[in-house]
Amino acid sequence: MTKRDLVILVAKQLGVKQNEVSSIVQEMLDSITDSLKDGNRVEVRNFGVFEIKQRDSRLGRNPRTGEEVPIPEKKVASFRPGKALKEWVQAGAGNRPHHLFKSDGTEQVENADAAPVESITEHRDKSDPPSPSGTQESLF
To answer: 50-56: long-range contacts at Cβ-Cβ below 8 A with a sequence spacing of 24 or more?
Structure first.
């Protein structure tokens, strides 16, 4: 499934214009990316955790020559599925149990300002400083 497929599916399911859903999906992806860039982890409860991990330097091997080659340390983006997602996949990934991935209204979105629905699809100014979120942002 591509991002475009996701936009079409969500727009159809919610009865919302595709350009509005596209803006929301893009903003969500931008927010995750910005948070990772700032060194934070992003947790979507029951779905999973996005984070940056440090890979240590190591010795690799050139497959053509067999010569040892030093591989420098680097940072990599990582996704670790949540418990509910893992259990659902292990069970055969039949019909998605909607209740596992939807908020029951008791979870709070940390570091989020309340915004009227009309402003949700407006693209935020990337020059704005990131919110002081510590080391974790929980989206759902």
So the answer is: 50/77, 50/78, 50/79, 51/77, 51/78, 51/80, 52/76, 52/77, 52/78, 53/78
Give me the pLDDT at residue 96, please: 63
Average pLDDT per consecutive 10 residues, the chain (140 residues; last block may be shorter)? 95 95 96 95 94 96 96 96 88 65 50 41 43 42
**3-class DSSP state of 48:** strand
Amino acid at position 101, single letter? F
CB atoms within 10 A of CB 71: 13
Map out the domains of the chain as residue ranges: 3-138
Phi, psi dihedral angles at 29 (to 5 degrees): -65, -40
**Non-local CB neighbours of 112 within 8 Å, separated by 6+ positions:** none
CA-based nearest residue to 24, from 121, 124, 125: 121
Fold of 3-138: HU Protein; Chain A (4.10.520)
Model confidence pTM above 0.90: no
Grouping H, G, I as helix, E, B as strand and the rest as coil, residue 76 is: strand
Q: Are strands 68-71 and 74-81 parallel, antiparallel or unpaired?
A: unpaired
